[in-house]
Amino acid sequence: MPQPLMELFPNSLRQVLEQLPAIARDSLEEIRIRENRPLEISYGSRYSFVREDGTLTDDHQGAFVPGREQCRALLERVTNHSIYAVEEELRRGYVTVSGGHRIGLAGRTVLDKGLVSHLRDIAGFNVRIARARIGFGAQVLPGLLDFKAKTIRHTLIISPPQQGKTTLIRDLARCISSGQWHHPSALDWGSRKVGIVDERSEIAASDRGVPTFDLGPRCDVLDACPKAEGIMMMVRSLSPEIIVVDEIGRPEDAEALNEAIHAGVRVLATAHATDLSDVFGRPVLAKLAAERVFGSYVLLWRAGGKVEHRIVSAEEAEQEVSRRYSRAAGASPRDAPATISKAANPSLVPQVQTEALVTVKARPMPVIRSPAPNRQGDINNA
């Protein structure tokens, strides 16, 4: 665990975490601290509770339990002893600290005219550890290239949370900004100007405006800036060739992305989704997909402790989702004649060629006979 992050924890918590086994410490992803509840960590796609001596257990009964004073001390350090200074972040439910580590917060919400104003009585913390993985993008970037334009296609990276989306776009930005295309046909392309709108301060982990992660020599960052507004600021004043944003999903995000695309800027974005059906099922993403805004989709998932990926073109995505809608429509038995039903929202799913109906010949039902009465000997032997 990075030492600056470790220093945020009160002494008693820090002593427990410093004793974690090397296998957990080296692959640590999340630390969950809940007042008067067991200390939990997530590492290498696994989770465990932590005993006071740093050993791991699946039994929460024997785990170390942080108390009220420890949680108060952690909140003081996370907010740099000024809750008001991070009021906007508290309204969103997280604080990003130096190094790009995001700390999710749980507590009581305070409402103002029906909207969340801020959090109070904070008693839960989810410390998400940010790491740069140099070389991650080299596995994916060759499949995203637009060889005619000598750049990347508009790309959306999708996965559930904690699968590596932010880590991937960070390394893709570094590769593109450095001109490392990782393809023999792109050796003479040179680098591109990359603009990152880092709303949650996770991609670049900027410290006073300066990225602490390696993003290459031709990268500009708008730190802690709302995505939609930041995209337009980038287009108007920083002339990026590629814009990178994390976790899109609001209508204003889609409008800003369309503006950037029509201004000649390529887009690299991420979104929370399990698969392509989720993309076509979320209104904002479905609209972008139906308009073929994205030329490529990258699906990420964890398998055996590793992050795997699959690249799908826009055409393949439409066909795949159309087939799924066709199979899922209605409640017909699996062996029923094939028919085509309209999807729940035909405007979001491209139409596919109607399949020919299959004629199924009726077969005579087998005759079911009752068993003959048992003989007396059978009864006696029963």
UniProtKB/TrEMBL annotation:
Keywords: ATP-binding, Nucleotide-binding. One of its GO terms (molecular function) is ATP binding. It comes from the Bacteria. Residues 325-345 are annotated as: Disordered. It comes from Cohnella abietis. Residues 151-300 form the AAA+ ATPase domain. The keyword Flavoprotein does not apply. The gene is spoIIIAA. This is Stage III sporulation protein AA. It holds the Pfam family Spore_III_AA.
